[in-house]
Each structure stands twice: as structure tokens, then as C-alpha cells.
Structures
1.
Amino acid sequence: MPDTPFIDIRHAAKSFGSLEVLKDINLQVQKGQIVAIIGPSGSGKSTLLRAINELDPLTSGEVWLEGVQVNKKLSHSQYEKHVNQVRQDIGMVFQHFNLFPHLTVRGNITLAPKLLKGISTEEANRLAEEQLAKVGLSEKIDAYPSQLSGGQKQRVAIARALAMKPKVMLFDEATSALDPELVEEVNLVMKQLAQEHMTMIIVTHEMGFAQDVCDRVLFMDQGVVVEEGPPDVIFRNPENERTRNFLRKHLAAQK
Amino acid sequence: MGLDFTVVPSYFGVLLMGAGWTIAITVAAGLLSFFGGIFFAVVALYGHWAIRLPFRLFAWLFMGTPLLLQLFLIYFGLIQIGIDLPAFVAGVIGLGLHFAVYNSELIQASILAVDKGQYEGARTLGLSRLQTLRYIVVPQAVRAVVPPMGNNMIALLKDSALVSVIGVMELTLAAQQAISRTYRPFEFYLAAAACYYVINLALEAGLRRLERRFQASR
Ligand SMILES: Nc1ncnc2c1ncn2[C@@H]1O[C@H](COP(=O)(O)OP(=O)(O)O)[C@@H](O)[C@H]1O
Ligand SMILES: [Mg+2]
């Protein structure tokens, strides 16, 4: 099935109680594609991202990754096994890093591969060294997260996710919690991943970055995808009034 | 009859032996209270209600009744139902479980205080619930309660004197034995107190080191 999308989200809907956060969202991502999701705060961007790896399971609709349904309806114990398996293929990077403070950088990166892929400590160490070199933090391998800057923490978080050799990487405002001078080092790592054709879905407030890196941009508002298209179109020539308003306000706020 | 400390040195061996047993029982009961505390905390938070309920009852029993009574119950009481434990073992179990219940209360609160992002970070990588608890949540929760748990360990050391009543030849009972031979209670109780003080200092130093070691990893 060459035409089936790598990631396929069909009629995704999600409610928290009576609050409808996602309303009939459809999103297809091809292998190697990079998609940015932009939109005002509270529009459901994080919820959509977290639905992809079942952190916030959908109320209805389907999520598929490479022909496997992520949100399969299964018995409790089978479901547990299934999500633990598919999550290994879906890397996620959070706004607040979520590094494990009691483990060194090495421990953060090697824990999951050792536990879940059954690789030896030496192999895991090599993997950690390799991933750290990639994010430019080889010298921090024995540091604890508390000894790192925000930008370094986020790069370690990316290395940790990459060590699982995921099929797709999800970024939820990976640079929003960083001091402005630390944003670029994280963006550089993400750009490098883009060059390696990692499939990525990136929730971001940085329009410049989205424009540089992404193949497609989705504008979300109030739980729906209002408009989507190539970055040039969305940023220079959006059709929808809401998109135009958002971008105008956003650009004004950034000045 | 005035004070005469010159009798003490000839009972050094007895006191030292007693101190050794005090240390042994403190370490053994301390380990039991540590791992038992973690176990009770996890059961209390995540166990099925049918398991949680008896544990709750058990915790109430151990927190709401005197330790001395618990030691009697374990050592003398259990014999009636065919469980005849050596005094040392009974002492370790009594002290260990008693303080496990207190440690469990600390660890429970500390587990609940672990950031939601830690669970998400772990589950996102594919760790199961149990792996997340075992490798992420519990280690962090335990690190956070090293200081108050250390206080429990110091209390445990001091309360280990109670196991003298079931005949464990620890420091307090050793001092009593010396007293029964020399009729010098003041000198020997003071000597025993000095020994407790030294053990206590060592314990506190060890706890401070542990705290320092965990400083970066918080
Ligand atoms: N766990 C939750 N419980 C209840 N409401 C939630 C929860 N998570 C998100 N929401 C609500 O869902 C809406 C969308 O949130 P979110 O997906 O975080 O938006 P965004 O990432 O675009 O800022 C918001 O109104 C938010 O308050
Ligand atoms: Mg968000």
C-alpha cells in the first residue's frame, strides 16, 4: 500500500467532560514529512499531539501509524501491552523537558532502550554517546539534569527520544520554556533532524522556524483545523480570515 | 557509695558486644523498614481495595499501639499459633514493620508529589506503569524523603533498646547485665548512653552523606 499515509488521523474528536477540544480532525502525514501546527493557546494543539501517542486518548476517531492502529480498542491488559509497544515508535518532546532528575544524562538516555529493547549496557552506552554527539552534548554524559541549562536539557530530551529510534517525532512547543538566547541551539538540532528526513509533527509558536523547516502548516483554532497548506501560502497568503487575524496578532506581539 | 567508673573497662567486651547487636538490629530493621515502607506505600496507593483494606488495618495497628506491645505479640504471642521466632528475628520484624508503616506514610505523600511530567516522560518512551513506578517515581519519591526518613532511622536506633525486654542481648540489656553483677547502674547506664550517642553520630553522618550524594539528582 504505497499510498497509505505514514500517519493517518481520521475524524479525531476529543472531549474533556462537556468541553469539546478536538472536533473531527483529519491529518495525513507522509514518511519524512514535517508538519507544523500553529494556533492560539487552548486551540487543542497539545491535545492532538498527545492523542497520537495515547497520552490523551481520543473520544472517537482513529490514529494510525504505518498501518497499525494506535488507539485500538482492546482489553485492558492487551491495550497496555499495545500502547507500550507503539509508544516506542513515537518520540515526544515536551515543553518542560520531563527529564528524570535522579538519573544522569546517560541514565536518562539508556533507561528505556535497556528496559525495552533488551540491549546490553555497553550497547546502550554507545547509543547514548552517539545520540549525545548528535545534539552536541557529548561532554555532559555524566551530568545530572539539574546541572544543565534549559537548552541543554531540551537537547538531552531529544537525544533520549531518538535513542528509541522512533518512526516519528512529536514536538510540543519544545522551545517555549527557554530563554530566547537558548532557542537557537534547540532549533538547530530540529533542523538537523529535518535534513535527515525524520518524520515530525511540530507544535510551535515560532513562525520563522515553521516557515524554514516545515513542508506543511496547519492552523488550528477551537478544536478544528481552520486552514492548512505549504508554509509560503499559510504565512504569506492565508485564505481564512481567522488565520490572517492570528498571524497579524502574533507578529505584532513578537515585535 | 560514690561513683566509680573504673569498673567500666572490665565490662568493655560485654558493652561492645551489646553495641554490635544494637547496630545489627538497627541495620536489619532499618532495611526492613525502608523496603517495607516502599512496599506498603505502593500497595496503599495502587493496590486493589481488597488488599488495601487489610494493609490499612495493619498500618493502624502498628501506628496506634505501643511498640513494646507489638514486640510481645510477635515474640510471645506468635508461639501460640506455632510460630516460634528467635528473639533477634522477632525484634527485627517488630521494629522493622513498626517503622515501615511510618516510612510508608512519608513515601506515599512523596509519590503523590512527583510531577505529572515524569509519568508522561516515562510512558511516552514506552515504559509500563510498573516500570515507571519502579525506575522513575519511587526512586524520586525516596530521594525526596531522605531527611525525614533519616529521623525515623534515628528513632529506630533509640527504640531498639526495647528489644531488651524480649531478651536480645543488645546494648541496654548488656548494660543491665553488667549492673546486676556490679551494682553500678549509674556508671553503666551512662556508658551505654555514650555508646548510643556514638552510634547515633555515625548514623547521622551517614545520612548527611546520603543527602549530599542525592543533592545533584533532585
Ligand atoms: N486534562 C485536561 N482536562 C480538561 N481540560 C483540558 C485538559 N487538557 C486540555 N484541556 C483543555 O483543552 C483545551 C485545549 O488544550 P490544549 O490542547 O492544551 O491547547 P493548546 O496546546 O493549543 O494550547 C483547553 O481549553 C484546555 O483547557
Ligand atoms: Mg499546548
Note: The longest helix of chain A spans residues 180-195.
2.
Amino acid sequence: MTQSELPVLTKKDFESDQDVRWCPGCGDYSILAQTQKTMPDFGVPKEKIVFISGIGCSGRLPYYMNTFGFHTIHGRAATIATGLKGARPDLMVWVITGDGDALSIGGNHLIHAMRRNVDMKMIMFNNRIYGLTKGQASPTSPIGKKTKSTPMGTIETPIIPLNLVAAAEASFIARSVDTHSEHLQEMMHRAGEHTGAAFLEVLQNCNIFNDGAWRDFTDKSVKEDRMLVLKHGEPMIFGAEKNKGIRLNGLQPEVVTIGENGVSVADLWVHDETDPDASRTQILSRMWWPDFPVPVGVFRRVPRPTHDQLLVEQVESAKAARAAKGPVDLQKLLAAGETWTVS
Amino acid sequence: MTSPKSGTSSTENVTQLDRVTIRFAGDSGDGMQLTGSQFTATTALFGNDVSTLPDFPAEIRAPAGSLPGVSGFQISFSSGDIHTPGDRPDVLVAMNPAALKVNLGDLVPGGGIIVNTDAFNDINLRKAGYVADPLHDGSLKGYNLFEIPMSTLVARACDGLGLSSKQVELTKNFFALGVMFWLYERSMAATEKWIAEKFAGKDAIAEANKRALNAGYAFGETTEIFHTHYRVPAAKLKPGTYRNITGNEATALGFVTAAKLAERDLFLASYPITPASDILHQLSGYKHLGIKTVQSEDEIAAIGAAVGAAYGGAMGMTTTSGPGMALKAEMLGLAVMVELPLVVVDVQRAGPSTGMPTKTEQGDLLMSMFGRNSDSPIPVIAPATPVECFTMAIEAWRIALKHMTPVVYLSDAFLATGAEPWKIPQISEMPSIAVKNAPESQGGFRPYQRDPETLARPWAVPGTKGLEHRIGGLEKLDELGTVSYDPDNHHRMMLLRAEKVARVARDIPKTEVWGDPTGDLLILGWGSTYGSIRSAVERLRERGKRVSHAHLRYLNPLPDDLGEILRGFQRVLLPELNLGQLRMLLRAKYLVDIVGFNLVRGKPFQIGEIEAKAESLLGESVEVGR
Ligand SMILES: Cc1ncc(C[n+]2csc(CCOP(=O)(O)OP(=O)(O)O)c2C)c(N)n1
Ligand code: SF4
Ligand SMILES: [Mg+2]
């Protein structure tokens, strides 16, 4: 069947028969809904889509998707995705992970999946806490954060996830917010369209153990002024009155007001998703409220050969080189080197 | 040297021997592994049965001339069937004082020592801890000492080639090889060919090595220092085409062949570790056969990728050694839970922790059996000889595919690096091990509906229409495979997983008892102890002792006939290169009072050690009889 002959799927086709079991009010519900809504966009048959997750509240998502699903072990989903995609380049592979799953126990795998450019779409639910284990500090918890395991506050500097994956050469980097459903859906769509390692950070609210972790800038009433929606090829403008912008002064971003001190739109940093230099992605990823508006959108999208493509290419070129010397004969391979015959 | 057959022939001074064991020893920079493997290749080509034991330091280059920097290569070759690289060398080639010091204690009394006298200078003697020069203080009186100024002689042979003295010095191992070729009547042709290929385009270096080899040979022929040379006639091996092969090579080729017999893609993910890395290296070179390999970021990632590939319908596998095996535990547990086929190779080395990376041990049996949370049964198999690594690698996959289970394949450093002649099998004569994927479904697919015979679940590969389902590490509802916390279901699933692995016992060969089926003593072994045990049992039986040998290739599940076999003997002796791991399992399972013989020195057993232990046990059982 060609793609055009495929029956058109809807969100319903992607809903499994399992009851969803997150706490009422959890941000994960919205992420699941946007995921199910986005899936028909790609024209990929259900049986060719695989959701792989680690352990955490986020890790339950595959159970709710009516696709192939593999709920693996804590931190290692990326390794399984690497093997699956390597063996089966024809599949569309999504990885669902949490801030603890991806950045703590799975930190090493995250880096290597990104640098290899494994063709998978990784969605990290960042709630700045360990939800499933009932509220310990995570690698993204802010310094000083009091949790069950840090009664006097954490003494550890948090990881900036997008900064990390940019350093690891991720070919697609994006951020969105659980409650900003349209934007989130758009980001899921963009991640799904990308060929290569996509990393989408979703700022997610855990209303039980870390309620309001992002509220300061994601709340409807303030988000216009405190968040920056990145748009490819457009100057970085934000604010309820669309009069604020970001100017890049050397390596230093600055918040400026358009029309003040001679600043015009022409002075603003124009966002380029395809910027080959990831160091500017890193500058962007480090911008944070209250010094800066928090950027959301696609930070980076660069074409790069994927791990599975390169694996296949090497196999194909080795086969071609070999075929030039005659058919491959395993029997001959067994007899490689010096042999002798006893009669 | 062992048992001269016909004395020295008067005309050309040839002494015929059945078996000779030689050890090449030198600094790790002296090329002893190369010298040993060249001698091995030529000897195998000549038609002797051979067995080898490389012994090298973990450090790539320990300080030159130091004791820890000594690298050795032992080869035993024979006109008969041999099973081990020999207990003690008959001849020691020592390229420097440290090599002499480290290896002298192993040499048989009266054995031959060939030394490079040029290396016996004050500095090297001091580095080796010699107060006086052993070549001159009479301490080697009990041996046959041959002093050859190898460095001087290669310098002379390579005169005029325009090479630096350092480059020339590097050829002295080929000089030593030439001497040994002359001494044992071997042809230089294969090594000359190897030199020409290896140093193609570097004419001066090739020429220097060739000259050094020839100079060594000529030295043997023309000088008076050797009074005889030795003949070890070709062995009577079974008809067929042979090559020499190490355990790691045989393992890699076994996996390639398994993929062919299973008609599936092989996918290897591995993290480098001694002594397993060569399997990764070799399989990485077989891309033209469609084999995909990934060097992962760690051992967890490696087994993760293998599980991912297996989930996708490929033959996902990973190779490692003890420390890496320890890291794989949690993912192995996942593979048990999701019941996917997977092969994990553990080339065991001396532990715990980093231990002695290049030395052998059988220390990972209990870890393979039990080293996971909860009851998490996995079939465990172990090849007994380097050659057997080939068939057991295929066997690992046959079991994994047919029974839908991860399988642990336990090799060890001795098997991995040891070599012996291999009668090359015909792939066309081997049975298929192919299994089918679950077919498309119109609905109602049950991912944990089991095969009534094997209890294997279907291999439901993504991409197959109608099979969309979710699996994972959480407990499964019987048949349906959805998440379940039901107490009775969990109990049932625990039993089903155990029974599935137990049923592999229906699918493995009977245990072979070599010797008589009953008797005074059964020496039981597993893995690489095969050769030493078999040789010891041969010797004991020659002396009329009622001793037999059985060797286990299947450690989990154990063969069904084992209990009865054990009970057929007065005593059972179980030599292991660990502190008694299999013995603990067997005593628990069969309530048989098995006697252990456990040495953990990073080396294989010597035949004589097992023989002596058996003799002492037989003596005891006589006491009991009275
Ligand atoms: C090897 C291992 N260690 C620890 C755990 C316990 N554990 C489960 S989830 C989790 C943290 C999850 O945090 P995060 O990834 O942020 O996910 P969230 O629940 O917040 O979505 C931990 C520590 C485990 N399942 N496995
Ligand atoms: S604990 Fe937090 S993250 Fe987990 S389901 Fe409940 S609200 Fe959501
Ligand atoms: Mg979290």
C-alpha cells in the first residue's frame, strides 16, 4: 500500500483500551492528548510506530497509545531505541522520558543517542521532580529546592537540558509547555517530521509533588511577557505589546525595548533554526526567567545523516565492494587464512 | 622432552618425539605473541595437533625489562591427540633476564633454555632482580642452556639495509623463530609469506625480518651448539580440511553461521573489554555479510541496543567480560520479563572487580545464573574447547530463538585466546534454526500466548499489522500481556518463566560419559577445564584406574540424566577455576557430596594437578572401602 492509499487515521485510532492512571490534574494528560492528536499527521501506519519509554510517571505513556509500545527500564529507553532503529530503519520510533530518567540515570545514553543522531523523537517530560517515587529532587530541580530527599534544599546546580543536548550535537531541539496545547501539538508535529535525533523538552506540571514549578512564566496571565516564542527567520520579539526583543551583543543576549534608545527591529537577533553553530543554540537555551523570557519553539533543526542510515550505508558499501570480488560465501569465510587437508 | 621414541639417528641427528611444549617469553615489546602464533600456524600446517596458551600482561607496555612486562606464549604440539597447551614447557626461549626469571620455575627439569645473551646486561639483570648473572653462576646447571647473541647476529644479518639499530633489534624474535623452526624441522615458507604480506611496501623491514628468520635457521644448521634436532611427526587427525582457530574467532564465526542458519540479521552491540573485544572486532569486519555492529557507550547501552534489535526481529546480541556482565544485570532481567531472544557472551576473566583482565577464571557462573533481582531464569551454556566455541555459539542462538529467551554463553580468557586445529564444518550440512515471526492478525492478538511444547511466546515484531501491543518490565497478565498486579497471576507467571527455561532440558543432548558409565571416580567439569581433565583421565585410565570424565556444556538447565550419572560413581571430583560455583549448584540440586578442586591463579589447570588430586581421592576411597 502506498502512503496515499492509507486509510486516514484519527486521534481515536491511537487511543489504547487501557485506563489512563495519572493523578487528576497532571500535565501528562495534555501531553498524551497532543501525542495522540499528532500521530495521524505523519501518514505512518499504526503498526510501524513504536513508543519506547523508561521508568517514571512519563514512562506509562506507551500503554495508552494503540501502537507498538515498550515500557523498558529506568534511563535506558534510548539504548533500546538505538538498537531497534538500527535493526529496523523502517519504523518510526518515539522515546518518552522524564527529567530523572533522561538526565540522571540515563544521562550517558542521552548524550550518545544525540551525538549518534539516532532517528528517534525523544520527548522529555520535565517536571523538575521525581514524580513516580513520590517527590525527590531531580537534576532539573532548582538549587535550594526543598524536597523529601533534600529537606534543607538541594545543593546541586541544575542541568539545562537543551544546553546539554546542544552540546551533544542533537540535530533537532525544541521546547514547549504541557498546557500550551496548540504550541505543544505543533512541536510534536515538527519533531515527528524531523529525520534524526529530535529532543523535545515539555515543561510539565506535577501538581502533586511540585505544583506550579513553571507557573511564574507559563501562566496565561504572564506568559506573553515572560516567554519568547521562537519563529524561524523572524526577529526575537516578545511581550504583550510586542515591543520587547532580544539583541545579541557578541556572545551576550540582551533584552531591549523596540523604539527605546534607538533600538529598532533590525537590531534584533533573527532566529535561525538551521544555524550550524550549536553554540548560539546554547546561548538561547541558557536564557531564563527572570533575566530573560524563557524561549519555546524549535531551537535547532539541522540535517545530518542518521545513525541507522549510516549503518545501512556501511553494510551496503561493504556488500558492493565484496560483490565485486565474487559472491559472498560463508563457507569460504570459515576457511579463511591458512588451511591444510588431512586425507 | 617427553618420551624419545627412536634414539638419535646417526646420520642426521634427529630425535623423534611424541609431544613437545615450548614457551616463548620476552618483553611485551619483543613480539612474543607474534612469534608464538607464527610457530603455531606453521606447526598446524605441518599437521601436528596443537594447543596454545598466550599469557600476556594487561599493560600494553609495562616498563621494558621488568618482571611485570614479561609476555609469554606456550604451544604444545604432538603426533597424537592433545587437549591442553601442556603443563610445563620442555623448552623455554627467554629473550631477556626477566623472561628467564618469570618462567624458569615452570620448565621441566633438564629442559632446554635458549637465551638471547645480548639482553643479559647489568641493567636488565638488575631490573629482573638478579644479583648474579644466572648464565654464569651455575644456577642453570640442571638445564640444557643454549646461549645465542641474537641481537649481535641480527645486526650482522641486516647489515647494509640502511635501517636504524633499533629497527634491526626488533627483528630478533624472527631470529629466535628461525632457530626453533630448524630445531623442530619446520618450514619457513608460511612465515616468509606472512612477512611479505605484512610488510608489503616496506621492503627494507620485510627484508630485515626475513634475513633474521633465515639467520636463525642457518644458525641452528651450521653451529655446533645443538647436537640434534627434533621430529614430531604429523598427527593422525580425522580426514578433512583444517585451519587453526582461537576460541574468540570460533565464537564470532559461530554467530555469523547462526544468523545464516536462522535466516535473520545479526545485530551486535558491545563495549570493548578484554578478553572479549576480539569478537566485536571480528564481527565488525563482516559488514559485507549484512552484520550490523555498534560500539556502545557502555555495557548497559550495549545490551539495551541488543534488546531493541531483538524486539525489532533481529538477532540482537552483546559480548562482554565479567565487569560488563555485572552492568548488564538489570537489562537481562527485562529480557527475561519480555521474553525476547538474546545472546549475551561473557568471556570470563579473573575477578572480582577489574581483577586480572588477561587471565582466565570461571568465576561468573553464579552471576549468570542468579545475578539479577528476583527469580529470573536464563539458560546458560559453555563451550569446552576453542573449537567448540563455534558449535556452542550456534547452540546459544538455537535455544534463544526456539525458546524465546535470553541465553548466556560463558567462554573464558583461556578459550578465547587459546588456539587449536579446527576441522572446518560444512554449513550446508547443518540444520536450520529458523523460527517464524507472529503473523498478521485481525484482532485479539495475545502477546503472551505460549507454545504448548516449549512455552515460548510469539515473536510479535513491530511493523506487523494487527499486532500492536505493549510490553515492558511490569508483570504481565498471563496470555494477554497487559500489566497485572494480581497475586495469583504473578505466582503463575513466575512458575511459567521457570518452567519455560526448565523445558530447554528436553531439547539438549544427553551427557556423554567418557570412560565407563560407572566406577570409582567421575571427574566432572565445565568450560575450558575440558582439556586438562580429559588428559588426566586418559593417564589415570592408562594406569588401570576406574575413572571417567563427563563435561557439561549446559549449565542451566542441567541435563536430565546428570543425577543418575553422578550416582553411578563412588566419588565425584569437580575441578573449577573458581571457589566451587558449579559444585554448590550440583550439591544443592542432587544432594551428592561432590568434592571440589579449586584453583584460582588466573591459569588453566595442569593435567598433573588434576591427576594428583584424583589419585589422592582414589586412595581415600580405598580407605573407606576397608
Ligand atoms: C534502576 C532503578 N532505580 C530506581 C528506580 C526508581 N525510580 C522509578 S522512576 C524514578 C524517577 C523518575 O523521575 P522522572 O524521570 O523525573 O519521572 P517522573 O516520574 O517525574 O515523570 C525512580 C528513581 C527504578 N525504577 N529503577
Ligand atoms: S505524581 Fe506528579 S507527575 Fe506523576 S502522575 Fe501524579 S501529578 Fe503526574
Ligand atoms: Mg520528573
Note: The pocket of thiamine diphosphate (ligand 1) is lined by residues A 55-58, 74, 98-101, 125, 127, 129-133, 138 (CB under 6 Å).
